[in-house]
Write a structure and sequence with these properties.
The structure holds two protein chains of two kinds. By secondary structure, chain A is mainly alpha-helical. Chain A contains seven helices and no strands. The chains are: A mainly alpha, B mainly alpha.
Chain lengths: 155, 146
């Protein structure tokens, strides 16, 4: 095994990864904070809630959901970590967002990537999205019925 | 849509602080996982795992070489999987089947470690992604190839 090349890949790749995360997460958080303050998020959440509530997702979960869905699971997850510290988000919501985003995230980047190797974008997008909706719905029902891992509590 | 009045500079500063805090939180999680996965990429472990899975690719209507793309995608990331996909001959249907499977389940060490910070059990998210990926691979094969 070529240790020099491996260490070089770790160092170079590590710095590149951090650079990308920084360049995305800092502007994203600033834009999201401004969108919240300007009332844009409330407006959008009110439009989305009637649909997301059907699969158990409440208002406090929509910000990480949108960030994860369009930008990537790391960013949605990062926001969830920050939000979870405020203690205002229910454990059930965290679990459901994680479930949804685990199956369906970064839909723009991922779809473009696979289109580049000849995959059908429509099949790719719809199967992933519908699967996430279905699994989130099933977990929401299961949590309401059995309250496993005490997920109905607040974090 | 109602525009609320707010202090732009202060709000942007709050966002900046939250952004940096989230960056620090993500860094602590991502760097160790990245170092381990990069190390793994330099060992013969991943091709060996792929060899083991080769005979099972028929279930999804895929050639045996597709196993390496699935293993690389699930352990390293989608870019590593795409590099392999580019080097094997796939029909449009096969590319779509692989895309669906990899879309659902990829970069597992990195992504599950991140979501695990919210006390989501590693095994739950792992099984959810891997099992649904396998099931949809079979369904997509039936739909697209028959």
């Amino acid at each position: 095994m070529d240790w020099t090349a491996m260490l070089e890949a770790q160092a170079k790749g590590g710095f590149k990864l951090l650079g990308i995360v920084f360049v995305i997460i800092v502007p994203l958080m600033i834009i999201m904070e401004l969108a919240k303050a300007a009332g844009f998020f409330d407006w959008l959440a009110n439009k989305m809630l009637p649909h997301t509530q059907k699969i158990g997702l409440e208002k406090e979960s929509l910000l990480p959901l949108l960030a994860g869905l369009f930008v990537g699971i790391s960013y949605g997850g990062g926001i969830l970590i920050t939000e979870a510290k405020t203690g205002l988000i229910a454990k059930k919501q965290i679990f459901l967002v994680v479930c949804f985003l685990a199956l369906c995230h970064a839909i723009i980047e991922d779809t473009l990537l696979f289109m580049a190797v000849g995959a059908n974008a429509l099949y790719f997008l719809t199967t992933r999205f519908l699967l996430a909706v279905l699994c989130t719905y099933i977990f929401s029902l299961l949590i309401n019925k059995f309250n496993f891992w005490n997920l109905k509590e607040y974090a | 849509m109602v525009m609320a009045s707010f202090n732009f500079t202060n709000t942007a500063k709050i966002g900046l602080n939250k952004g940096v805090a989230t960056f620090v939180a993500l860094t602590k999680i991502m760097i160790p996982v990245f170092a381990i996965v990069t190390f793994l990429k330099f060992t013969p472990v991943l091709p060996a795992v792929a060899d083991f899975f080769k005979p099972f690719m028929k279930i999804f209507g895929l050639p045996g070489d597709a196993a390496l793309a699935l293993v690389m995608g699930n352990t390293v990331n989608l870019y590593a999987a795409l590099a392999v996909m580019g080097s094997i001959k796939l029909s449009g249907a096969q590319a779509t089947i692989m895309a669906v499977m990899l879309g659902i389940s990829h970069s597992l060490p990195m992504e599950i470690t991140i979501v695990q910070q919210m006390k989501s059990k590693f095994i739950t998210v792992f099984l959810l992604r891997v099992l649904t990926s396998l099931v949809l691979g079979i369904i997509m094969k039936e739909v697209l190839i028959g």
